[in-house]
Every structure is written in structure tokens, then in C-alpha cells.
Amino acid sequence: MSRPGTVLGHSMPAVDDLPAPAVTVVLCDLDDFEAGRRSHGEDWARRQLARAEEIVASLVDGRADARRWFVPPDSWLVAIGGDDPAAVHRAGVALARRWHRLIGQRTDLTTAVGVSGAHAGPGRLEQAMAEAARAIDAKLVDGGDRVRRHDQLPVADPSRQPPERVEDDLGRCVRRGDADGAVAALAAWIDRMSVVDGVTPGLLRHWIGAELLYAMDVSGRRRLPDGSADWIESFGRLALDELLDMFVIHERSYLLLWLRRLFTRIVAERAAPSPGRQVLSVVEEHIKAHYAEDLRLATVAEAVYLSPHYISHLFQRELGTTFLQYRTSVRMGHARQLLSSTELPIEAVSCRVGYYSPKRFRDVFKRTFSVTPTEYRQRYGPR
């Protein structure tokens, strides 16, 4: 699912709302365009975009009831307006079907096309954009080359568990330094999970995230005194911004590229930590020991006798994240543990993980996990 205020991970077009009372959005996203660009080159990519642009222009330009925008790098959005919501929606579905057929006929690619419901009232264009983006997001599960209506998408059961796990295969690959094997094992498992009845993109990402945390635990070789996995350690080492990247990936080919980059780093870090990574581990240990305090970059730098600039550089170079994002990931890992294993009031949990403003804690938690602390406890808290 795209982040709020975005279409497929990109900022939404800065446009005025359509004057029509009802609006439907149709979103066309070329399938595996970036993978094709890597394989065939920039000239090929420019030709495909030009052909797709000609198609959308032929379908939309001259229509008084429609507007169109390009959403980089490979998507087009069309808003159709009118007085009758049912008629507007029918027009959107008809446009989507023609668009899908013409892309397959006139380009070297296929396309996924998402159609929103018809919305009226304030914010109707933004609501319709969000629905069309969710319809496109479904291609992560069932692939591209089809038209999807938002009202036909399955509803996820967030408490559902995957019917099989892939931890054993992942663990063996990470321990022997086989990044390609780990990606292949996870990719095959994702293929199997994608055809599970009722699975949604959000649920699939939730399952993938759990497998990634396990791989991070194997890589770090950290265990709690009772022998169980130190999930807080694992969560801290999988940077929040890195994990969030997965939530705007909606194509399997892009997901595999992301996983390959991630596992290459995991395996390389386990095999031979760089001098910079060893220095950074001292900073990480200090953050984990003092996460509940008023922990700032300057105070950490003073405590470990390093410059703030150097610490920032190490986080970016070694983990691809920032000091603040890493600190947040550690705090959120502890917050999840407290919410799921204790009955402490939310305000007390907030203080224990370093947020002295409960409102600030709730905002950060919801931005991180897409649920409030209260909702998280209702799902995963003590029974």
C-alpha cells in the first residue's frame, strides 16, 4: 500500500479538485518497467513511455469530463468526473479495459490498471486516487496484466498466519553466506504464499517482514538468556526506512531486487564486518542501553568519543539510515514488546521507551506500524 499522500510511493499530483460532483480515478502502471529498463536500456525505456503516452492521450485528450497526469516513473492517472456516480464509474471501467488492451497491442509491455469507486464531496479526488492505488498494489500478490476494481479486492484478516514458514531455509543460507540462495528460498516461498486464498498485499508484506526479522536474528547471532530470539536486536538492525521501502513496492520483480540488495548486505556484514561497522556497533550498543533517555546525536557522540558528523556518516554508509531513524526503530521494538507482553498503560509505555509526550508516541507508533498502540495491544496484547 502506498504511504499517505502518495500514489504508488510518489507524491500525488498537485492539482485542483475536479468541479464535477462525482469522480472516478483510473490508474495505469506499466508492468516490470524498471526491470525492462535495466535489461534493454534507456532508449528502449523512452520508446515504451512515449508509446504509452500516445495511448493515454488518444483515450483522454479532448474529453471534457477527464483529466490526466503522468506519475513517474511509469504510471498514468486519469480522473473522470460527472453528475451520475454510477455512470462515472462505468466510464472509468470502460476506459481501463481499453487502456489495458492497447498497452498490450502497441508496446512491449503489459500493464495493471486500477479503477476506484465513484466519490462525491470534499476530498473526492484524493479518496479515488487512494483506491486506484490500492487496486494497483494488488499486483504484488497476483501479478500485472489485468484490470482491477477497488470494490472487488479481498479484505485481509490481520491475525492470519502463513500456512508454512521458510525460516529453516533462510537460516541455512545466511549461515553459509549464500545471499542468492536466501533470496531464491524467500522468492519461492512468496510465490506459494501469494496463491493462498484471501491473501492481500498488506498481509503478504506482514509475513515477509517476519521472515526478514528472523534472517536478521540469524545474521546477528543474538539470543536472549532463555534462548529465544532477540527481536528488538533484529528490529533495530533492520532500519525503519529500509523496511518501509517494502511497503511501497507493488511488483514482484522490484521486490526481488530489494531483497537481493538486503540479503547481500546481511551476508556481507555477518562474514566480515567493516571497520566502520565495528565502530558503529559501539554506537548501537549505547543507543540500546539508553534508548529510554533524552537521547540525542550530540550526547551519543560525546559518550562514545566520536564526532556527530562521523556517526551520521556511519549510519548512512553502513546501514543506509539515519541516527534518528535507528533510534526510533529501537524504541519501537521495545514498545511492541511492552504492548504485547504487559498491561502497562499506554502513557507508561510511552515514557519507558523515551517519549514523554504520549501524543508524540502514538503518532510515531502509528506512522511506523499503521496502527495505534491501543489497536496493536488489542490484536497482540496479553489475553
From TrEMBL:
It comes from the Bacteria. The keyword ATP-binding does not apply. The keyword DNA-binding applies. Signal peptide: none annotated. Residues 277-379 form the HTH araC/xylS-type domain. Keywords: DNA-binding, Transcription, Transcription regulation. GO terms for molecular function: DNA-binding transcription factor activity; sequence-specific DNA binding. This is HTH araC/xylS-type domain-containing protein. The lineage of its organism: Bacteria, Bacillati, Actinomycetota, Actinomycetes, Jiangellales.
